[in-house]
Design goal:
Elements lengths: L4 H8 L6 H11 L10 E5 L2 H5 L1 H5 L8 H11 L3 E4 L1 H5 L11 E4 L1 E2 L12 E2 L3 H6 L4 E6 L6 H17 L4 E5 L13 H14 L3 E4 L9 H10 L6 H11 L6 E5 L6 H13 L4 E3 L2 H4 L3 H15 L4
Parallel strand pairs: 1-2, 1-10, 2-3, 3-6, 6-7, 7-8, 8-9, 9-10
Antiparallel strand pairs: 4-5
Helix pairs in contact: 9-11, 11-12, 12-14
C-alpha cells in the first residue's frame, strides 16, 4: 500500500540506509492496527530467558507454549513480535509472513550475579535472515563496566544487519555505575536514548523515566536549560528530544506487571509526550487471553488518538 505522509517523514530520517533496510522499517510501521500512524506496539517475549519460566508464564500457563505469544501478537494487531532464537524457531515457519518478527540477538539470565552487567550473544544476524525476520534486537547496559564491549559488538551487528537489509531495535537499559533509582532517572534515560541514536539504532527502547536526576552535572544542566520534568509526559518529551530531536523512533517498555488503570494512564502520558509507542510483554501476556487482547487494543487506541 502507499506510505502515509507520516511514514514517509519517518523514513526520511534515515537517509544513509539502503532500500532493504528502509523497506523492513516501513513494514514495521505498516503492519497491524497502527499501520500508517507512525506509532508502534510490539509484543516482546524474552522474559522466559531473562527471568525464568515460572516468574514469566506462571500467572498465565498458556504462555509456556511459544505459539501462544505469536498468536496473541497477531490477534491483537501488534506491529511486530520480538523473541529470542528458540521461541522464534518454534513458530516462524508456521506463521511465516503473518507478522514482522524481531530476533533478540542477546540475552541474560538471573542465575548469575555479575559485577558488570552484560548480555550474551545467543543468536546471529544470519539466524534472523533464515527465519524471515524484519529486524534484529539487541540490549546494551549504559553505565556497565562492560559497556565498551557491548557498544563495539553492537556496531558490528548493526553493520551486518544493514548489509542484509535489516534495521536494529535497541533495548537501552542503564545499570551498573548508578543507584537503582538512577537507572530510570530522566537524565540517565535521556542519555541512553542519545547513546543509542549515536550508535546507529533505528528503533530505541527505554524504560519510562522517573522524576529523578542522578548526575550532579546533569542536574545543573537541566536547571540552567529550564527542562521541565514534573510529569511523565514532560520526561518522555525530553527523552524523545534527546534522540536526535525526535528523528529516531523511541518506544517505551511496559516494565513490571501493574494494574490496568495505572498502565493505561502511563500510556496516555507516553503518547502525550510524543513517544512513538510501547513494547509491552509481561503486562500483556501474563493476563488471561481475552483481557490481554482488550488491553493491547486499548493501548493501540490511545496511540491512534481514539481514546
Amino acid at each position: 500500500m502507499p506510505h502515509t505522509d507520516r511514514v514517509k517523514q519517518i523514513l526520511s530520517w534515515y537517509p544513509s540506509d539502503n532500500p532493504g533496510t528502509l523497506t523492513n522499517l516501513a513494514r514495521l510501521l505498516n503492519t497491524g492496527t497502527l499501520a500508517g500512524t507512525g506509532k508502534l506496539v510490539i509484543l516482546p517475549v524474552d522474559q522466559g530467558f531473562e527471568h525464568g519460566p515460572a516468574r514469566s508464564f506462571g500467572p498465565n500457563p498458556a504462555g509456556y507454549d511459544p505459539e501462544y505469544h505469536i498468536k496473541l501478537a497477531i490477534e491483537s494487531g501488534c506491529n511486530a513480535y520480538a523473541a529470542p532464537l528458540g521461541f522464534l524457531e518454534a513458530v516462524a515457519g508456521k506463521y511465516a509472513g503473518e507478522i514482522p518478527l524481531i530476533l533478540k540477538l542477546n540475552n541474560s539470565d538471573t542465575l548469575a550475579k555479575v559485577a558488570n552487567p552484560m548480555s550474551a550473544v545467543t543468536s546471529s544476524v544470519k539466524d534472523a535472515v533464515r527465519l524471515g525476520c524484519t529486524a534484529v534486537g539487541y540490549t546494551i547496559y549504559p553505565g556497565s563496566g562492560a559497556r565498551n564491549e557491548q557498544y563495539e559488538a553492537l556496531r558490528d551487528i548493526i553493520a551486518e544487519a544493514k548489509s542484509y537489509g535489516l534495521p536494529t531495535v535497541l533495548w537501552a537499559y542503564p545499570r551498573g555505575n548508578m543507584s537503582k533509582e538512577g537507572e530510570t532517572g530522566i537524565d540517565v534515560v535521556a542519555y541512553a536514548a542519545q547513546i543509542s541514536a549515536q550508535l546507529g539504532a533505528h528503533v530505541i527502547k527505554v524504560k519510562p523515566p522517573q522524576d529523578h536526576i542522578e548526575q550532579a552535572e546533569a542536574k545543573k544542566a537541566f536547571e540552567k536549560a529550564g527542562i521541565v520534568t514534573k510529569t511523565l509526559a514532560d520526561r518522555v518529551r525530553e527523552v524523545v528530544r534527546s534522540a536526535f530531536n525526535g528523528k529516531r523512533i523511541v518506544i517505551f517498555s511496559g516494565g513490571e506487571a501493574k494494574g490496568t488503570d495505572a498502565l493505561l494512564e502511563e500510556i496516555k502520558q507516553i503518547n502525550a509526550g510524543g513517544g512513538f509507542g510501547s513494547i509491552m510483554g509481561r503486562n500483556a501476556f501474563q493476563r488471561p487471553h481475552e483481557e490481554s487482547i482488550k488491553l493491547l487494543k486499548d493501548v493501540m487506541a490511545i496511540f491512534a488518538g481514539k481514546a
